[in-house]
């Protein structure tokens, strides 16, 4: 059977409370421009707000002025969303805890994830949000996913527990050597495993 091949996330839609709570959080705290609003075409009593998370794709929120924010943690049952992670630059990431603390937003502090660093906090409706910053840049012509797939192969071959920076460095080297020819006769491809 043929696949329905995805080409990326088109948008994520969340159920919000009132309009201003969404604008204050998504644009006011996370810096996502509020780009347009229209009625929820499936429920006339709701509004549909659209925000740009930074890559031109969309985060949208259904709002209703009769709903009040409930900061209790959103469900994490099977089939529910656990959290949403947003990429931030290294420079922004280094300032994130301080900026969250200035707003008195409880957060996890920096969490070491081996190939990236993370900070977690909840939105005004209890949805867990992650700010994520990679510890590497992929070589020209390659994606973060390609580097992580190669790093995973190296990690598994070595019997290591999780991807670490050494796996990333070796993956970047392997991808670079495979994609860039050299006139050097003694440059034999190395087995990174």
Automatic annotation (TrEMBL):
<dbReference type="InterPro" id="IPR052537">
    <property type="entry name" value="Extradiol_RC_dioxygenase"/>
</dbReference>
<dbReference type="InterPro" id="IPR029068">
    <property type="entry name" value="Glyas_Bleomycin-R_OHBP_Dase"/>
</dbReference>
<dbReference type="InterPro" id="IPR037523">
    <property type="entry name" value="VOC_core"/>
</dbReference>
<dbReference type="Pfam" id="PF00903">
    <property type="entry name" value="Glyoxalase"/>
</dbReference>
<protein>
    <submittedName>
        <fullName>Catechol 2,3-dioxygenase-like lactoylglutathione lyase family enzyme</fullName>
    </submittedName>
</protein>
<feature type="domain" description="VOC">
    <location>
        <begin position="8"/>
        <end position="134"/>
    </location>
</feature>
<dbReference type="InterPro" id="IPR004360">
    <property type="entry name" value="Glyas_Fos-R_dOase_dom"/>
</dbReference>
């Amino acid at each position: 059977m043929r696949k329905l091949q995805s080409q990326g996330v088109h948008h994520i839609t969340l159920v919000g409370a009132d309009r201003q709570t969404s604008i204050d959080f998504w644009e006011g705290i996370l810096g996502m421009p509020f780009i347009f609003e229209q009625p929820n075409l499936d429920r006339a009593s709701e509004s549909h707000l659209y925000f740009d998370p930074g890559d031109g794709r969309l985060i949208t929120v259904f709002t209703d002025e009769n709903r009040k924010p409930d900061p209790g943690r959103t469900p994490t049952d099977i089939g529910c969303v656990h959290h949403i992670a947003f990429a931030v630059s290294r420079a922004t990431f280094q300032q994130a805890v301080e900026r969250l603390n200035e707003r008195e937003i409880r957060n996890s502090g920096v969490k070491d994830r081996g190939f990236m660093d993370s900070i977690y906090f909840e939105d005004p409706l209890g949805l867990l949000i992650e700010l994520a910053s990679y510890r590497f840049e992929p070589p020209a012509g390659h994606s973060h996913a390609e580097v992580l797939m190669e790093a995973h192969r190296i990690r598994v071959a070595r019997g290591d527990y999780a991807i670490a920076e050494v796996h990333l460095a070796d993956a970047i080297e392997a991808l670079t050597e495979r994609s860039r020819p050299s006139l050097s006769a003694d440059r034999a491809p190395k087995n990174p495993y």
